[in-house]
Design a protein that fits this description.
The protein has helices spanning 3-11, 21-37, 67-73, 88-100, 102-132, 153-161, 163-167; strands at 41-51, 56-59, 62-65, 76-85, 137-138, 170-171, 177-178, 182-190. The protein is an alpha+beta fold and 213 residues long. The radius of gyration is 18 Å and the shape is globular.
């Protein structure tokens, strides 16, 4: 079982339990379908970064109160704001299957989440090569909704990126991204390489989550 399949299985809530062959086959088929129609797009901008002693983070003109984000960004001089999406085609595919084959629709949701993370990981690895030319190392991505980083900050991030115009990424009144397989994130840029910062599940305190790595 390759890494993307394992990640999708985690999103399905299997945890460390073995997945049956039928579900694994459905996961692989779903990835093949997503590979044909997904249109990954990213928009990003680099801003100066300032962190106050009381945990307030200033990225350009964006002011964020988050001790978790401040800890992740400590020692950084700049920050990358980004928005990314797999495109509306993925939403359309999931909606179609939700009307005819709910099991596949659920698996597509999990595969889409895993594919988005894979897409962002690959992008970040490539971008770090460019950042290193200027002497910067990248921290792990940190998204609104992690820890005490308020999810409502997504609206300001999208506005600063002009994401609606550039990649068709918008937000609902309930702070949900559209298309659904999308994400916003902050990446710190530091002159020093740091190994101890965490991301995602490792940062979250909900230890009993069924989706935990």
């Amino acid at each position: 079982m390759n890494s993307r399949v394992k990640e999708a299985v985690r999103y399905l809530g299997y945890g460390r339990h073995a997945v049956d062959k039928k579900t694994e086959r459905l996961v692989r088929d779903s990835f093949e379908e997503l590979d044909r129609i997904a249109k990954g797009r990213i928009v990003y901008r680099i801003f100066e970064l300032n962190i106050s002693d009381d945990g307030r983070v200033k990225i350009g003109e964006l002011h964020i109160t988050s001790k978790n984000l401040a800890k992740n960004m400590r020692g950084c001089r700049r920050a990358v704001l980004l928005g990314a999406t797999l495109g509306i085609e993925v939403d359309m595919l999931m909606k179609r299957y939700s009307l005819t084959e709910m099991a596949r629709a659920v698996v597509l949701q999990a595969c889409g989440a895993a594919m988005l993370e894979e897409y962002l990981d690959e992008w970040q690895q490539e971008y770090e090569k460019e950042a290193l030319k200027e002497g910067f190392y990248l921290r792990p991505r940190f998204s609104p909704g992690y820890g005490d980083f308020d999810i409502s900050c997504q609206e300001d991030i999208l506005r600063m990126l002009d994401a609606a115009k550039k990649i068709g990424l918008t937000i609902t009144d309930g702070h949900m991204l559209t298309p659904t397989k999308s994400v916003t994130a902050v990446i710190g840029m530091s002159k020093e390489k740091v190994f101890c910062h965490k991301k995602g599940c490792e940062e979250c305190r909900k230890a009993d989550c069924i989706y935990r790595r």
